[in-house]
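# nightly structure sweep
# worker-07 picked up a monomer target from the shared queue
# config: single-sequence mode, recycle default, output format = structure tokens
# input follows
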Amino acid sequence: MPNFPSLLILLPEIQVTLIALVCLIAAAACGARVTRHIGVLAIGAFVLAGGSLFCPERLKYLLNGVLPVFGFGLQIVDDSFARFAKAMILIASSLSLLLSWSYFEKEGTQKAEYPVLIMFATLGMMLMVSAFDLLSLYVGIELQSLSLYILAAFRRDEAKSSEAGLKYFTLGALSSALLLYGMSLIYGFSGKTDFLSIMELLRASGAAQPGILVGMVFVCAALVFKVSGVPFHMWVPDVYEGAPTPVAAFFSAGPKIAALALFTRFLLYPMMGLAVQWHQILFFVAVASMIWGSFAGLAQTNLKRLLAYSSIANVGFILVGLLTAEKQGIEAMMIYLAIYALNTLGAFAVLLCLRRGGKPVETLTDLAGLSKINPFITLAMTILMFSMAGIPPVAGFFAKYFVFLAAANADMIPLVVIGVVCSVVTATYYLRVVKVMYIDEPPAPFDPLPDWGVRSVVGISALAMLGLTLAPSALLRGAEKAMQGFLG
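# output follows
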């Protein structure tokens, strides 16, 4: 007999799965000519799943959506934290699909399997967010990763794209091995795989068991790879540069949200009894990511590599919120994630808008004189760069402010000082982009702008940064609601 409550928890995932399978059959039967139709269906699937997440009848059945509800034993969980993260993932995936339509048509590499792979990657991310067991955690991560390996090398006839896919696959396989080994140690020494049982075992023992501690270190190393934190960041610049630009945009948003949400749940539930130990690991990762992402970005002239180092630095800032292990810090982290995802998608959308001589812009000098040719795109990029730099009053300032405030309230003043200094350093290369657009002379005219899809993402991202500045209450309430039932 079907387990109806468990199936109801996974209703959004089931909807995405069914539509993805239909789209897969259509892609195999009809080929590239139905790519846009499948893309529209994919966005429709994400909208439908988002509606199911917050459907009043579903939430009423699941104890009003406040207390955590478990399904299939303790394999999956439904709570406000998971719904908030899933909503961000669905929005990021939808915007990423809008970015891809005209790009692959102009590159002559349009393939119907692209939106299908995005759907399966999104499905994996949603499962990651709801995972409450080591087994469901692994299934979600691998479903996402297998799709991302293919997406990174999507333009397989180009050397850079093939290289990006190979590097990501090789290092991703290494991280999967670390993850499996760590999980096997945790299971071997605890006899449990669900998060609740592991948490109760550590709480009852009152001391760190060496086997579980070593297993936790291996799992943390694998998850640091997934969030692209130092020292497992080496794949990020090469993959961002080599992968198609819409794929790099997708990498910078959806997978990061899912991995950080999973990282948060893993550390604050089963591993909460080892908080002293993982705090040291996370402190190093946060500080190293902020410093390396900030200073290495100063030397970048390739725009995609610059955004790659920006993502490494931002992961460090986000982890500051997680380090507090308190509700205020996790709320700040979720606010930061939402703002960062829109920011980075908008920045990649600007790159996709601009071409010179039929070739996409790649270097900083390619943006020279943009303000004289297209003031709208220039203004949007300026807002996004100011937001990423954390310059008030744009939304990015409040993202960093809330994270640093939570750290200060948790008596982590040295971490706040390092974060503020690194924010100033990152502002240097963000403002350099603005300077090039407004002051430098254009070497050649830009091509006409692409279709409405890419331009709409630029507009949505820039307006969101201004809108969240003027009326941030919706996002603040959403993050506060996400913490209901989380952390007890």
